[in-house]
Amino acid sequence: MEPRTPDHGPGRLPAGSGGRPAEGARGEAERGPEAQTDRLRYLESATRRIAWGSDRDETLGELCRAAIPAFADAILVHLRDPLPSGEAEPAEPSVLRLHSMAQGPEASVTEAPAGAAEFAPLTVSGRFVGILLAGRPVFGDAPGLVPTVTALLEPVASLPATTAPGRRLIVAPLYGRRHVLGTVALLRGAGRPAFTEDDLLVASQLATHAALGIDKAKVSGHEASMADALQLTMLPSSLPRTTGVRLASRYLPAADTAQVGGDWYDAIPLPGNRVALVVGDVLGHSMTSAAIMGQLRTTVQTLAGLDLPPEEVLHHLDEQAQRLGSEHMATCLYAIYDPIAQRLLIADAGHPPPVLLHPDGFGEVLQIPPGAPIGVGGVPFESVEMPAPTGATLLLYTDGLVESRERDVWAGVELLRARLQAAADAFGSPPLDMLCDAVLNILEPESLDDDVALLAARFDGFPPLNVAYWFLSPQPQTAGRARQLTRRALHRWGLDSMLDATELMVSEVVTNAVRYASRPIALRLLRTDVLRCEVGDDSPQVPRMRRAQAGDEGGRGLFLVDQLAQRWGATRLSTGKVVWFEQQMPEERRQKTPSAP
């Protein structure tokens, strides 16, 4: 058969190539250096095209389009099932499964071939495995290949070719950095010259670049999976159930095409039935962002435990971010809700403003002084205090909810406010879960470029009748006065059965506070589903339980509290400390809190 003359017509080469590889020995002799130049141009274009693939399927699709029809009439890609991982080479036999194919002048690639399920997985061993491990392409007439070749070419059996394709077939191993990943079969029909020895080199380059692309996609996919798992484990597994506020949250990861981000939210119980509400976003999308998010979230939890005001929390968080590296920045919003005072204290570090849905259904974008992002350094933060009326709902979120390629952040914030207000108009006081779902409806999940973290808090407040509060001078008779006030409060609440134990514990804790306090002592009793007592003073020294010796006159107070209370603890504050204890109340006297958000 006469060799075909060089064909530079449209559709015969990938874009950007200057020619096609030589297709016969006679053509090689006639063309000489021109054939080599065309081959190099083709390889440059084809390998660049393969490198464009961002994942495994796209890489193999580009391989098929680069090979057909410029180099072959049909191509089949088989991958090992499962793809190998780790260092050790899997033992024989190897199983190959058809992944993609292309044939014909249109070079249409089918990544999941129609009827692919009809083609059983190919189990290979012996001579064929040896060829794969050698990592070099071979012609179809290589010794020992005929039985395997017949099964390999079954999906393109309709292509005009001999039953023994010989040098019209090249089988090239997909050899990655450590393992054989599969095979590429390149086939030419009867109307086209057979492959040459130089074509083996072309096939080797095509297969090598495709295998490296698969390896890269496999590593990237593994890292993305690890980053997703890392981020999800660092988000709260559940929200705390605290008296006076109901909570709901949502976390929506970005689309599959985007990398993991550093969005997080948190709700942290504080002394006095208060709760800290936090939302933050580490700038960037990578595993590093997820790891930095975890460190900042841990820092916030630690700072919240010190009961610092919001601006102090953001100040210390800013210092921590700078220690992690100047290139790591984040936005954060930190709020403290006090259900007894029904007040909200908020500070902002470059984060989108929260939205407050008032009990009457009016949506308000809160005006918070916008501080610089965390990590900038040297910028002061400012807290704002405002009313938090019972029945209102506060929504904290990250910028992925309100910002996209189609709208800026402020247009998104206004859309969010309008959506909240519309939900309130339609349902009165909608459940928090319904409200969160309504908010997420403003998103288009298929084009979601950033993660979304959402935290909703509905303020139930704390009934004044369930609180008893006094300030007492630190004097020797203060313990007796505290017992008397406690007795009156418990009698008013119908908790006479708890008088003896509560009086004893209050006396011990107040006596300890009198010993160290220099300013008035705060005594507070809270009635919810438990009876909680809090004693605050201005001394930072936190009491520790110790075992009293036989001759000691003191040292048994906290031991008694530990024996009588259901729970107790001590929290150091910026202004001193609070020692608290809780007791289980009789079932008929418990103040039930709403169970559903």
Molecular structure report:
- This protein is α+β, with helices and mostly antiparallel strands and 597 residues long.
- It is 32% helix and 24% strand.
- Strands 1, 2, 3, 4, 5, 6 and 7 form a 7-stranded antiparallel beta sheet that branches. Strands 9, 10, 11, 12, 15 and 16 form a 6-stranded mixed beta sheet that branches. It has a 5-stranded antiparallel beta sheet with strand order 8-18-17-13-14, with helices on one face.
- It is elongated.
Which SSEs are present, and which pair or pack?
Blueprint: H1 25-31, H2 33-51, H3 56-67, E1 74-80, E2 94-103, E3 108-110, E4 122-124, H4 127-134, E5 138-139, H5 146-152, E6 169-175, E7 180-187, H6 197-234, E8 245-252, E9 262-270, E10 274-282, H7 287-305, H8 310-324, E11 330-338, E12 343-349, E13 355-357, E14 363-365, E15 370-371, E16 383-387, E17 393-397, H9 409-427, H10 432-440, E18 452-459, E19 467-472, H11 478-492, H12 499-516, E20 521-527, E21 530-537, H13 557-564, E22 567-573, E23 576-584
Parallel strand pairs: 12-15
Antiparallel strand pairs: 1-2, 1-7, 2-3, 2-4, 5-6, 6-7, 8-18, 9-10, 10-11, 11-12, 12-16, 13-14, 13-17, 17-18, 19-20, 20-21, 21-23, 22-23
Helix pairs in contact: 2-3, 2-6, 3-6, 6-7, 7-8, 11-12, 12-13
Keywords for this entry:
six-stranded mixed sheet; 13 helices
Q: How much of the sequence is in beta strands?
A: 15-25%
Number of strands: 23
Kindly state the percentage of residues in helix. 25-40%
Form type: elongated
Largest sheet: 7 strands, antiparallel
Q: Name the average pLDDT.
A: 80
What does the radius of gyration come to? 36 Å
Structural class: alpha+beta
Q: Give the terminus-to-terminus CA distance.
A: 80 Å
Number of discrete helical segments: 13
Low-confidence stretches: 1-30, 109-118, 550-554
